[in-house]
Amino acid sequence: MKDAVELIVKHLVREAESVDVREVERDRSTSVIEIRVAQADVGKIIGRQGRTVKALRSLLHAAGEKQRKRYHLEIVE
């Protein structure tokens, strides 16, 4: 799942080389995906009124349903 999120985020930002995506497992059924981008690109990831990050979270939710896993998405500054 980390790779899919990383691919999407790299296509959204200007500084693709500064994108860092990490997956941290809380337990067997829950993972946190942390996204780090350049300061100038944070707004692009969040989007207008949070629409872009909401869409990413929706994709993670749908993919998690198939895998019977819960994903949380966090933007780390």
Describe the structure.
The chain is of the alpha+beta class and 77 residues long. It has one domain: K homology (KH) domain (GMP Synthetase, Chain A, domain 3, 2-Layer Sandwich). The protein is 43% helix and 27% strand. The chain has three helices and three strands; from the N terminus they run αββααβ. The chain has helices spanning 2-12, 42-46, 51-67, and strands at residues 20-27, 30-36, 70-75. The protein has a three-stranded mixed sheet. A hairpin with a 2-residue loop joins β1 and β2. The protein is globular, with a radius of gyration of 12 Å. The mean pLDDT is 94.
CATH topology name, in short, is: GMP Synthetase, Chain A, domain 3
Strand order of the largest sheet: 1-2-3
Q: Termini distance? A: 21 Å
- What would the average pLDDT be, to the nearest integer? 94
Record field, number of beta strands: 3
How many helices? The count is 3
Low-pLDDT stretches: none
- Structural class computed from helices and strand pairing: alpha+beta
Topology order in helix (H) and strand (E) letters? HEEHHE
What's the number of structural domains? 1
Amount of beta strand:
25-35%
Helix content: 40-55%
CATH-derived architecture: 2-Layer Sandwich
Rounded Rg:
12 Å
> Which of globular, elongated, flat, extended, rod-shaped describes the shape?
globular
The largest pleated sheet is described as: 3 strands, mixed
Keywords:
3-stranded mixed β-sheet; globular; single chain; 3 helices; GMP Synthetase, Chain A, domain 3; alpha+beta; 77 residues
